[in-house]
Design a protein that fits this description.
Elements: E1 4-6, H1 13-24, H2 30-36, E2 49-51, H3 52-57, E3 77-83, E4 96-102, E5 108-113, H4 119-134, E6 140-143, H5 152-161, E7 164-167, H6 177-197, H7 204-215, H8 228-233, E8 251-256, E9 269-277, E10 284-288, E11 293-297, E12 300-307, H9 326-346, H10 360-365, H11 429-458
Parallel strand pairs: 3-6, 6-7
Antiparallel strand pairs: 1-2, 3-4, 4-5, 8-9, 8-12, 9-10, 10-11
Length: about 475
């Protein structure tokens, strides 16, 4: 049982009944009990009762309402946060980025980093840039308790320049909500740019920088639908700001090649992908994947309806099946051989037990030794010319379509529309010799068959021979 206390009132009969029912009903709130027992609250209110058990069992975090306190002058309060590491490194090796957001104008500055140790030199550069470009000083820097901010170098720098460093309480990122929400907004915009244009994910640095460029030039609800640049311009003149017409991220961009970059008969433009806007140049950034070169220029022809990178899942139909290797080909050949034997037995008009040859072809086949098919010979290149593939009508259902081809299987033997192939006859010297002996054996079999027919005609009481001496048909 929990220990209950009454704060203001003595232990009267009504109070005793109230505490009793409070424990009986599983410690409901006193506001709820006032609806159940209004007579017990005739002389007291709900705030006059506190239960230790309820506090221990139902403790919650305090809500964080949006703060209405905003700075009246730019750069009086700067919010900062570090994001990373990214699971995918960019082409330049970046895995982190740091943001600085002005509380008054919501203007955002972003810097890419390869390591978290780059935070301090980047802040020094940012501080000098603000002092030089806007003739003002940073008064307060608000961040979390990360080790990149809490160190001896930062503390010494803050003391030298009179900057107050405000940090959040432990496990309370809500107190740095401006920077946290800004990072979320940037990542959502960058993710949409990458997915919408099917751009590879290692270009996420171009997408995140483009997101900052666009957000700084778009109206914000916090600023009464003014852009951060417009809000900053109201407090003083701005340095040269690049204002280029926006283009679709990831679209095809044909960069003009000057005469010193091409020959007289070469194309006048290069097909590239648009990846953003230059920071300190008035031009578009276009990337050429083959040469891994980035062009910054205004001489660009955009095709905003066509994306440079295509969706890998759009043109490739679903392939469902089992991977086939050399061992599968051998099993298929054996199954085909059994199938053809069964077909030949089904169409054989002879009586059971009759082993006499059906035709001259079978008789000649018995004259040469049986040769087993070596499946390894199908993967050699000893033939004089490529033998034609004998294909069999295949099942076009999805179950027979191979999903991934085996790397050990030669590509010349892989046919996605054919389930199996008949054995390939190799044109070698040995086969030519066997063919010659096969012709000779065929002539001998004709003579022998004529002799048997004559003997049976002269002696009709005798039965036909059912077997022949095999040594007669052996090739010499």
């Amino acid at each position: 049982m929990g220990k209950a206390h009454s704060v203001k009132h003595s232990s009267t009969w009504k109070d005793q009944q109230l505490w009793l029912w409070h424990r009986r009903l599983g410690h409901p709130s006193f506001g709820y009990m006032k609806h159940l027992f209004p007579d017990l609250f005739s002389s007291a209110g709900t705030t006059d009762f506190q239960c230790d058990t309820c506090i221990l069992a139902k403790s919650h975090r305090v809500s964080y309402p949006l703060s209405a306190n905003t700075s009246g002058t730019p750069f009086a309060l700067i919010h900062s946060d570090v994001w990373g590491p990214s699971p995918i490194s960019t082409t330049s090796g970046f895995r982190w980025f740091i943001t600085f957001i002005d509380d008054c104008t919501r203007m955002t500055w972003l810097f890419m980093m390869k390591n978290k140790t780059d935070v301090f030199p980047i802040f020094q550069s940012f501080h000098k840039q603000i002092e030089t470009q806007f003739s003002t000083k940073i008064q307060i820097l608000r961040s979390d308790n990360g080790g990149e901010y809490i160190n001896h170098d930062f503390q010494t720098y803050f003391q030298m320049h009179g900057i107050i460093h405000e940090t959040t309480c432990p496990q309370t990122p809500q107190q740095n909500g401006v920077a946290e929400r800004k990072n979320r907004h940037l990542l959502e915009t960058a993710r949409a740019l990458l997915i919408g244009a099917h751009v590879p994910r290692h270009h996420w640095d171009d997408a995140i920088v483009t997101a900052v460029y666009l957000i700084n030039r778009m109206p914000s609800k916090v600023l009464d639908f003014r852009t951060p640049l417009q809000a900053l311009a109201q407090h003083g003149p701005l340095p040269s700001v690049q204002m280029l017409p926006p283009r679709v991220f990831g679209c095809v961009a044909f960069v003009h090649l000057h005469k010193n970059q091409r020959g007289k008969l070469d194309p006048c433009a290069l097909r590239c992908v648009f990846v953003g806007y230059a920071a300190h140049q008035k031009g578009y950034r276009c990337y050429h994947p083959s040469s891994r070169r980035t062009y910054v220029t205004l001489d660009v022809t955009f095709m905003e309806s066509e994306m440079f990178f295509h969706d890998p899942m759009s043109n490739s139909p679903p392939q469902i099946g089992i991977q086939t290797g050399p061992e599968d080909w051998s099993k298929t050949n054996r199954s085909n051989e059994v199938e053809f034997q069964n077909m030949s037995q089904a169409t054989d008009p002879r009586e059971p037990g009759d082993r006499s040859p059906k035709n001259l072809e079978e008789l000649s086949d018995r004259s040469r030794p049986r040769q087993e098919h070596d499946i390894s010979s199908y993967f050699t290149n000893e033939t004089d010319e490529d033998p034609p593939h004998i294909s069999v009508p295949s099942d076009q259902s999805l179950e027979n379509t191979p999903e991934v081809s085996d790397s050990t299987t030669p590509t010349a033997l892989i046919d996605k529309t054919v389930r199996y192939q008949l054995p390939i006859v190799r044109r070698t010297v040995e086969n030519r010799q066997i063919g010659i002996h096969r012709i000779m054996a065929r002539h001998q079999s004709i003579q022998l068959q004529t002799m048997f027919l004559l003997k049976n005609y002269l002696h009709p009481s005798k039965a036909l021979y059912t077997s022949y001496p095999q040594f007669i048909f052996q090739p010499k």
